[in-house]
Amino acid sequence: MKFNDALIGAALVALGAVVLWHIQGFPPMPGQKYGPAWFPGLIAIGLMICGALLVAARLRAADSRPLFALPQWTRRARPVASVASVIAGLLLYVAAADRLGFHFTAAALLLAWSRLLGASWRLAVPVSLAATVVIHLAFYKLLKVPLPWGLLERFAF
Amino acid sequence: MTLAVLSQALALVFDPYVLWVIVASAAFGLFVGAIPGLTATMATALLVPVTFFMPPVPAIAAIVTATAMAIFAGDIPSCLLRMPGTPASAAYTDEAYAMTKQGQGEVALGAGLVFSVIGGLFGTAVLIAAAPALAEVALKFSSFEYFWLVILGLSSAVFLALGDPLKGVVSLLLGLLVSAVGLDNPAAFPRFTFGNAELAGGLTLIPIMIGMFAVSEIIRNVASMDQPWEMAQANIGNVFKGMWRLTKKYPLQILRGSTLGTAIGALPGAGADIAAWMSYAVSKKFSREPEKFGKGHVEGIVEAGASNNSALAGAWIPALVFGIPGDSITAIVIGVLYIKGLNPGPTIFMEKAPEMYAIFFVFILANLAMIPLGVAAIKGAKQLLRAPRQVLMPVILLFCIVGSFAINNSLFGVLLMLVFGLIAYFMEENGFPVAPAILGMVLGAMLEEHFISSMIKADGRLLAFFERPIAAGLGVLTLAVLTWPLARAWLQRNEGPR
Predict the structure, then answer these.
(1) Could you count the other beta carbons within 10 Å of the beta carbon of residue A128?
(2) I need a labelling partner for B255 at 20 to 30 A (CA). Which of B106, B280, B408, B495 fits?
(3) Quick count: other Cβ atoms within 10 Å of Cβ B423?
(4) DSSP B462
(5) Residue A89: partners with Cβ closer than 8 Å, 6 or more residues away
(6) For residue B497, is pLDDT > 50?
(7) DSSP element (H, E) containing A28
């Protein structure tokens, strides 16, 4: 997704302004010239200057490019579905892993992702199950990462 | 280095467990490097959660070995698919592919392997010689010198990034802004936390790096998954045939590539990919046959192939001595070093001498092991490249999830990974380099801390930054580096057509 530099520049100016406004509430460090607001303040001013320069460069070049352009792949159905599934799947994991448990969520996501990317059932099913088991053994058993059990809590081993 | 330290270091490396880790991570590195779209930095980010649970030496050995292998293996799909396996091979992908088309694939792969090993060993030699020596000097450094070093590092990251320097500055500032989140500042005031406990400790870097280097790459991959790869035919026999002749024909190119590569690696923010681009350009510029470049000529591959592997070791010099990463890989490594109690800094070579020399041995070992393992990877390349990406990408994504979770055992890490993956994707789509942002995140806290403590010592007098001799020298150098592009632009404008 390509945005026109002028648009990005304007967004950076806005971001800088918001940061500057927000840090007004930071307390000074007693007896010190440079408190906690100094560093982010400097960054914010820098962002605003760079943003303005980006806008200026675009205006000077009389750029007629659209404000934003979608890449080629967004015109094909499968890539759009694949990219959307990556984002949605990660959000789903964050939302559901604690309740459903790692194993259900992981195997289901793997299966959904592989199928969407075009893997056959014969490949997707065994790989999804095997990868879930291997990660369970490697991370939960060997490395002691407390992956959530969720629904399978009773069968935890 | 005393004999006792040396034998301790050898004992640390030649432990069966460590050797096993080296072999396993070599295989991992070769695989990741050979698959287009999976990078050496991604290999490092994915290894971190695993190394979390290892003793220091095998943890570092895993990263050193995997990255060295990955940078070499990136040349394999360049030859066979016209796609760089890692960005470090992109500079000469067209050249390598053209060689394959002319039936020279064997030579291109052989040159990639042999001169990767030579470059890697050269960079290692410089690392071994330079890092402890530099540490001696750095022992005298105070917050004033460190402040300038950090500024110098940040500026070099911006100027060495490919593309528009202004966008490099934006990327750097965004990274610094991320580093400002949380309680970790001299005043210990919770900045930008919005009352959220997860944000109070600051944004954890590892999930961010996994997002920026792995998730963004996966998004790019799945977006182009419906385009099949077309493999070029190549008969690969003895890849070492003719290599001695090439070494004798291009000794200067090998030396120049290795030297420039090590230097670029050691400069903060630029790593193997930029080293390869620069070395390829230098090679073409000084070649006696520049017209052959791009049409299947091995000279550029020799020079740039040595360069990108030497950059890997070079990047460890500032990382170990100052805690300033030389490239994106060492930006991740610094976090691992802290976790393992190997806090980077000039005293590391005294306090942790056996571990440091063990790391040096691992570098040598990894580069030597590249010869047999590299040959095996080249022989198995066709099978390797047939690995079904439709299931590979999901499995890597699951690995990313578990890795981001494992750092703090928190789902917030997974969310952080997704957010920064998307940010990195948008940044690269719009020509904003990611490396300066990473450097900003890693060095932001250090920059502020050294500035504030310097100002406390000097009672707020900014001129104090120029009052110690080394600080003054570094300060002048930094200002020169910073003003140079402006001065050049101004000169060009005045010399231009009137």
Answers:
(1) 25
(2) B106
(3) 19
(4) G
(5) A109, A112, A113, B397
(6) no
(7) none
Q: Which residue has the higher pLDDT, B495 or B241?
A: B241
Whole-angstrom distance, CA of residue A154 vs CA of residue B99: 60
What are the phi and psi torsion angles at B37 (to 5°)? 95, -15
- The 10s digit of each residue's pLDDT in B78-113 is 999 888 999 999 999 999 999 998 888 889 999 999
Q: Which residues of A touch B192 (CB under 8 A)?
A: 22, 40
Q: Amino acid letter at B97?
A: Y
Does A31 contact B at CB distance below 8 Å?
A: no
Q: What is the CA radius of gyration of chain B?
A: 22
- In whole angstroms, how far apart are CA B234 and each of B80, B97, B226, B378? 7, 10, 25, 11
A 10 A CB-CB count for B418 gives 24
Q: Is B244 exposed, middle or buried (0-12, 13-18, 19+ CB in 10 A)?
A: exposed
- The pTM of the full predicted model, rounded to 2 decimals, is 0.89
The pLDDT mean for chain B works out to 90
Greatest extent of chain A over all pairs of C-alpha atoms, in Å: 70
Q: Please name the helix (run of DSSP H) or strand (run of DSSP E) that holds residue B157, with its range, or none.
A: helix B143-160
The domain ranges of chain B are 3-230+241-495
> Tokens 């320097």 appear where?
B165
CB contact at 8 A, A44 and A23: yes
Q: Which of A1, A55, A73, A86 to mutate to test the interface with B (most CBs of B within 10 A)?
A: A86
A35 CB within 8 Å of a chain B CB? yes
| Residue A127 to residue B218, Cβ atoms within 8 A | no
| B28-59 pLDDT per residue, tens | 999 999 998 889 999 999 999 888 889 999 99
CA distance B424 to B433: 9
**CA dist., res. B34 & res. B231, Å (int):** 13
CA–CA dist B40, B38 (Å, integer): 7
Residue B267 is classified by DSSP as S
Single-letter code of the amino acid located at B230: E
Calpha distance B71→B33 (Å, rounded): 6
Residue with tokens 């694939």: B105
Q: Which residue has the tokens 């806090």?
A: B343
Residue A66 sits at the vertex; the CA angle it makes with A63 and A71, to the nearest 5 degrees, is 125
Report phi then psi at A2, rounded to 5: -100, 125
Name the band, by pLDDT with cuts 50, 70 and 90, for residue B498.
very low
- Alpha carbon B110 to chain centroid, angstroms: 23
Q: Residue B406 and residue A143: Cβ atoms within 8 Å?
A: yes
List the structure tokens of B410.
């928190």
What's the rounded Cα separation, in Å, for the pair B70 and B34? Answer: 7
| DSSP code for A4 | P
